[in-house]
Amino acid sequence: MAHLIREKKPLLARIRRIQGQIEALTRALDAETGCADVLMLIASVRGAVNGLMTEVMEDHIRHHVVDPATDPDPERARGAEELIEVLRTYLK
Amino acid sequence: MAHLIREKKPLLARIRRIQGQIEALTRALDAETGCADVLMLIASVRGAVNGLMTEVMEDHIRHHVVDPATDPDPERARGAEELIEVLRTYLK
Amino acid sequence: MAHLIREKKPLLARIRRIQGQIEALTRALDAETGCADVLMLIASVRGAVNGLMTEVMEDHIRHHVVDPATDPDPERARGAEELIEVLRTYLK
Amino acid sequence: MAHLIREKKPLLARIRRIQGQIEALTRALDAETGCADVLMLIASVRGAVNGLMTEVMEDHIRHHVVDPATDPDPERARGAEELIEVLRTYLK
């Protein structure tokens, strides 16, 4: 899919960071870290997965629906811009 | 932390499944899979992370707060049981 | 905003249902209903608010960005269709 | 349910605030306010419903499971305290 080729590098970097967080979680379990700390690590993985979701959705809108930066129709460009802003607020 | 020692094996198995899902996601990006499929893979990672969170919270309640199966106080046992049920419903 | 005028009636009906659920919640508190039941009522309000959010976002995409049913560009129509499908799955 | 009697007043005040937010949302739809503003109002209702959920769960833990402030067992008190903290972080 065209847009994911262009955006692949930052997305793979994001995924590698999530893998690093999951390895930290595995180590915390192995080291018998306190339960509250383990829960906070899991909450941070969840936040990172939500961030990845938002980024892929935003890329999808820009590359497969309407790119607010280049669309010739100003109303449609504004509609796409608003949609991206709401997704960022709502999915965080 | 005592409870995570006892529950470590199933939690590590859950984490390995999440790592497998993330590898599938990396391969999907490398193979330039369609964006909608990539988004569905990310949604499934998120579901699995929520499942892990719920399981660790439930283990925490059973082992560090009140275990409904063994607590001598029936009201408190029922309160803990209800809490676990609500977490399962709400965090899924 | 144009699209919300057209879609106003079903959205107001949805909001009235949420208001009804909140009144049921108030009555449950007044009647000193069990805590677990109150939590389930709150969870159902949350589900209904998520449903409203998804519907307004979907209407926004159709009316201010790209309507998959009428857009002359088939790739863009498909991109918008996929986006709506992912939002429905992800925000539920 | 005992704890909801004691905590009823602040919970009803919270619910009234949510009702006020929903009335603002209805007025925004009637006034044909911009879609992005309507979405932000819905997001704020959702945040308030999550806040209500967290408060009722926290009250439930304190009154029906373990109250960290008064429980004679320090380990159990700490377990309940950690659980409340995680819920506040995770459900916000």
Automatic annotation (TrEMBL), chains A, B, C, D:
GO molecular function: DNA binding; metal ion binding
InterPro entries tied to this protein: Metal_Tscrpt_repr, Metal_Tscrpt_repr_sf
Superkingdom of the source species: Bacteria
GO biological process: negative regulation of DNA-templated transcription
Family membership: Belongs to the FrmR/RcnR family.
Name of the protein this chain belongs to: Metal/formaldehyde-sensitive transcriptional repressor
The species this protein was found in: Acidiphilium acidophilum
Source taxonomy: Bacteria, Pseudomonadati, Pseudomonadota, Alphaproteobacteria, Acetobacterales
